[in-house]
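Summary of Year 1 activities. Much of the first year was spent building the evaluation harness for sequence design. The harness presents a backbone, in tokenized form, and records the residue chosen at every position. We chose the following record to illustrate the format because it has been used consistently in internal testing since the harness was completed.
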């Protein structure tokens, strides 16, 4: 856990954030500033600062994050209508919280 990291606090159960889905390696919760009717964050429990800080040993976490995105799209009823999944990387790429996280957005009609 990285001291002062809000996502570390959330995935470790130190906040009142509702966890929609979790495994030993990741947690999924709603973005507090949604950009779409469905806007979830898929966050590894291991503190990884950004995509730029990934190591080869983290490949299983990335794979699990993608499979969680698929599962959550189905659970949120956006799998058939369509959705986006993306990482923001570094401040210039829109990353505001420096703990790796995958956005899942969708639900437009």
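For this record, the design step produced the sequence shown next.
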């Amino acid at each position: 856990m990285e001291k002062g990291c809000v996502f570390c606090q959330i995935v470790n159960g130190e906040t009142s954030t509702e966890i929609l889905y979790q495994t030993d390696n990741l947690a999924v919760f709603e973005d507090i500033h949604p950009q779409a009717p469905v806007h979830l964050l898929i966050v590894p429990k291991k503190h990884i600062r950004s995509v730029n800080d990934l190591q080869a040993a983290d490949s299983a976490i990335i794979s699990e994050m993608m499979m969680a995105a698929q599962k959550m799209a189905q659970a949120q009823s956006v799998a058939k209508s369509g959705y986006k999944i993306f990482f923001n990387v570094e401040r210039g790429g829109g990353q505001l919280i420096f703990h790796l996280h995958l956005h899942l957005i969708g639900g437009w009609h």
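The first helix runs from residue 6 to 11. Quantitative recovery figures across the full test set are reported in Table 2.
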